[in-house]
Specification:
Blueprint: E1 2-6, H1 10-21, E2 25-29, H2 33-41, E3 45-46, H3 50-54, E4 59-62, H4 67-74, H5 80-83, E5 89-92, H6 98-110, E6 114-117, E7 120-121, H7 124-128, E8 132-137, H8 140-153, E9 154-161, H9 165-193, H10 198-204, H11 215-224, H12 233-249, H13 255-272, H14 280-285
Parallel strand pairs: 1-2, 1-4, 2-3, 4-5, 5-6, 8-9
Antiparallel strand pairs: 7-8
Helix pairs in contact: 9-12, 9-13, 10-11, 12-13
The structure holds NADP nicotinamide-adenine-dinucleotide phosphate (NAP).
Length: about 290
């Protein structure tokens, strides 16, 4: 099997590196050439365009930032889909909205390309350690065909249902993640204002049953005032925007989700866009270092 990987950012570069560790015949492409060179030095074949990477591939993975970028690369200006082999499989790991995944499926079908939405749960170190969970939507038999490759990059495949259901579930996860981070940040900040010791709050709150378990790791970022980017804040803003669009499409109100969206948006527009999304604490604190 010949495999292509398009999009070598924080996540994609680590996922592609794990395919290489498993001796996969891999061709890579990324808009910025440094990431391509780096993967090339690890043994990947390198391409000068997304089309060149994808045209001979049996499976094409994409891990791009957002739906508009995926559409531009695959069926907009770059027309990767039109250059792919008939019968090849496109696995989009980008976090997108479910109606976009359905559109991608329809576009792929025009070129006899098969499509799976396969966003991931897990962040930078999890991707590095090949411990991602792939949340898939599409025909189960198709997911079974690509599963060995998914398991080179992760340790679990959660098949949710037909096309778009992987993206649907991933969106719910990030909606909770964003709101939990805001709730934790505001709680700690109010505690501090009331004169409670910050270290006490950071040690104690993450162990309470009322809190989401992931905040333990984020509490360390706040403690050390070090927001080394695992999940860029601007992409959390993007995910909340996609959740809002999806809520509209489904005629479901999303009061708190939209407040969180505007908060992450405002932070993103004020210099926090490439910090980890946990930096929403620092933004709310109003003391950027
Ligand atoms: N980081 C996480 O913890 C995490 C976890 C789960 C899911 N995700 C999702 O995974 C996806 C990738 O996230 P990431 O953290 O790897 O983001 P990232 O580091 O910002 O990487 C984004 C990728 O998209 C490419 N890209 C952006 N705009 C482009 C354009 N106009 N044309 C062509 N390529 C473009 C970037 O290319 P350049 O290198 O040239 O900029 C890069 O390869 C996102 O959908 C994100 O929501 C992220």
């Amino acid at each position: 099997m010949s495999i292509a990987f398009i999009g070598l950012g924080i996540m994609g570069s680590r996922m592609a590196a794990n395919l290489l560790k498993n001796k996969v015949d891999l061709t890579v492409f990324n808009r910025s050439p440094e990431a391509v060179k780096e993967l090339g030095s690890k043994g990947a074949k390198t391409a000068n365009s997304a089309i060149e990477a994808a045209k001979e591939a049996d499976i094409v993975f994409s891990m791009l930032s957002a739906p508009d970028v995926v559409s531009e690369v695959f069926f907009g200006g770059n027309k990767v889909l039109a250059s792919m082999k008939s019968g090849a499989i496109w696995v989009d790991c980008t976090t997108v909205n479910p109606s976009f995944s359905q559109q991608a499926y329809r576009e792929a079908k025009k070129y006899n390309v098969q499509f799976i939405d396969a966003p991931v749960a897990g962040t930078k170190p999890v991707a590095e350690n090949a411990e991602l969970v792939f949340i898939t939507g599409g025909e189960k038999s198709l997911v079974d065909q690509v599963e060995p490759y998914l398991l080179y990059m992760g340790n679990k495949v959660l098949h949710v249902g037909e096309t778009g259901k992987g993206s649907s579930f991933k969106m719910l996860v990030n909606l909770l993640l964003a709101q939990s981070m805001v709730a934790f940040s505001e709680t700690v900040l109010l505690g501090e204002k009331m004169g409670l010791d910050k270290e006490f709050l950071l040690d104690t709150i993450p162990n309470l049953p009322v809190i989401a378990p992931f905040v333990k790791a984020k509490a360390e970022m706040i403690r050390n005032n070090d927001y080394d980017t695992q999940f860029p804040l601007e992409l959390m803003y993007k995910d909340l925007h996609l959740a809002a669009v999806t809520a509209y499409e489904n005629n479901q109100s999303l009061f708190q989700g939209n407040i969180a969206k505007e908060l992450f948006g405002f932070a993103s527009q004020n210099g926090y866009e490439r910090m980890d999304f946990a930096a929403i604490y620092q933004f709310l604190e109003g003391k950027k270092s």
